[in-house]
Amino acid sequence: MSSEIAITLSLLFLALVLFGSEKLPVDVVGIILVIGLVLTGILTVNEGVSGFGDNIIITIAGLFVLTGGLIKTGLVDLIGRRLYRISGNNELLLTALIMSVAAISASVLKNTTTTAMFVPVVLGLATRARIAPSKLLMPLAFGAILGGSCTLIGTSTNLAVSSAMQRYGMPPFSMFELTQVGIFTVIFGMFYMLLVGRKLLPNRGGEESLTEQYHIREYVSEVLVLPESNLVGKTLGEANINLELDLNVLGIIRDSEQRIAPRPDERIEAGDLLIVEGKLTDILNIKSEAGLKIKSDFEFNDATLEGGDIELFEVMVMRDSRLVGQTLKTLNFRRTYDLTVLAINRHGETFLDKISSLKLKFGDVFLVQGKRKTIEPYVVEGELLLLEDVSSGSMRTEKRRWAIAAFGLFLALSLSKVVIGVDVPLAIAVLLGVLLLLATKTVRYSELYSLIDFRLLVLIACMMSFGVAMEKTGTDVYLAALIQNYFGQYGGTAVLAGFFLLTVVLTQPMSNQAAALVVLPIAVKTALALGLNPRTFAVAITYAASFSFITPLEPACVLVYTPGRYRFIDFVKVGTILTVVVFIVAMVLVPMFWKL
Q1: CA angle 28, 31, 35 (to 5 degrees)
Q2: Residue at 377 is within a domain
Q3: Which of 351, 377, 394 is a domain's end point?
Q4: Is 214 inside a domain boundary?
Q5: How far is CA 587 from CA 175, 500, 534, 584, in A?
Q6: How many domains does the chain have?
């Protein structure tokens, strides 16, 4: 083993550890990897940043905008709202429809986008059909993941692998090349979920009120402000009850008139009843010095915290939200967002105490008290996801035909070589679609770049540069030789299956794109060494990178984890068998359509 190969493998191992620890964002890990390759002399600066100049970056960025146009015009929301009319309260039929629509939508919108759009809709369907959300949300995520494997644009992974294949002398995937096997994985995956997986799903959520679901009764009390209290005459802001007494004032009842979510300039008067959130021990400790008296006959439910235009909502922190990595305290959340966070649920664990100092993560669900009109702008900006049916009032429904036309233009141009014999590059096709969206103001220029997930683009660019390092140093050939020596005797199908399973395993700690781009060069060189078809291996890795069902670490699964009240073991139990199903389908069909 040469020193260059040793350095490349060491940096790869470091990247895997950092990906798995989640201590740093995935794009930052990618940047560290490229810097390490340049500083050690493995790559030149130009080679290190070459991934950023690949046309796939433009293509993926443009697709984010095109799908943003469909979302902003409410097309996905319109489809979802019609599901109940067809299925009614039939759980089997509703599950089948949700998975079918999710799969079809994900084939053009990407699985994470599709899941995010349908989570509120499915929660509304579960309520109307009186079905536990846990029975419908995992099928939604799994349907979207399966559907994303059906087309070139179904996932960013498909596009990234397609572009990387050209480095090894293979033509990129056509728009529907992956469809022929993808459809079968969707069909067999759905059959499994409907006949077996559905019975393994837990029956949780949907019956209780929000305050009962979050178990906040023991943290909310009603206290009387006595005439001698030192709080009398002060505003809530001056009293600084939140910091001084470690209590959160959720409402004030004065002369039988309830004032929910009072503002900081609200003055406290003698005889006020304060609805406060905090530990009972904290209230007991300060009640004498603050001149407060706890009311023992306090009756508490959702209605206690709602009134007028103040409501209780559940909102989820989205992946690219500015909240990720921050705390409620550093964000000054209550003043900045004009919302009160009552509790935080993270992967089934509810946090009620000291939540202001909890570092926020993607997938955290807040129980918040506030006004709907205050929440909606953050939902539109992609900061938060409101976990209920969203009003279409903010959707540009009148622009829907232009959103469809722009996407249709892109699809038509991408198929132009097959239809009319003229090859329009995918990047040009997607840019023309984006220009149509801008020209018709379906997407406004001011929001154009906010629709693009730059973190994903940086990660893909960095991992493509790492692929250059693997090839330049001969690391891919070295690893391929090891695999040939130890596993080549078992035959091409066995080696293909091994790479499939390796990719599935790597997608658990790593992103799908990173896992595929790490395995691809090794698989291609192994195929060549064994005298097999490298395209068959590239196709198998592409499918494997999409099939991340075993743990809730896939972004589509993260989005349904907390709303579905799932536990980690639920994904292991249901997802492992589904992974076996799609593995068998892929191992039978991939060598049939792409000869080994």
Answers
A1: 140
A2: yes
A3: 394
A4: yes
A5: 22, 9, 15, 5
A6: 2
SS3 52: helix
Over residues 347-357, mean pLDDT: 76
Tell me the residue range of the domain where 350 lies: 311-394
Residue 67 CA, chain-centre distance (Å), reads: 15
On whether residue 383 sits in a domain, the answer given is: yes
Q: How far apart are CA 85 and CA 89, in angstroms?
A: 10
pTM: 0.80
Query: Using one digit for the tens of pLDDT, what is the confidence trace for 415-462?
Result: 776 566 667 888 888 899 999 999 998 888 888 887 888 888 888 888
Residue 96's contacts (CB-CB under 8 Å, 6 or more residues apart) are 190, 194
Helix (H, G, I), strand (E, B) or coil at 507: coil
Q: How far apart are CA 569 and CA 51, in angstroms?
A: 38
pLDDT tens readout for residues 235-279 = 777 776 666 666 777 778 777 666 666 777 778 888 777 777 776
The beta strand positions in 242-334, using DSSP E, are 248-254, 257-260, 273-277, 292-294, 310-317
- Give one word for 225, left, alpha or beta, with left for phi > 0 and alpha for psi -120 to 50: beta
Torsion angles phi and psi, residue 572, rounded to 5 = -60, -45
CA dihedral 105, 107, 110, 115 (to 10 degrees): 40
**Does an H or E element contain 200, and which?**
helix 198-200
- Co-location of 231 and 286 in the same domain: yes
Residue 273 has which token pair? 């009843």
CA dist., res. 177 & res. 173, Å (int): 6
CATH number of the domain within which 365 lies: 3.30.70.1450
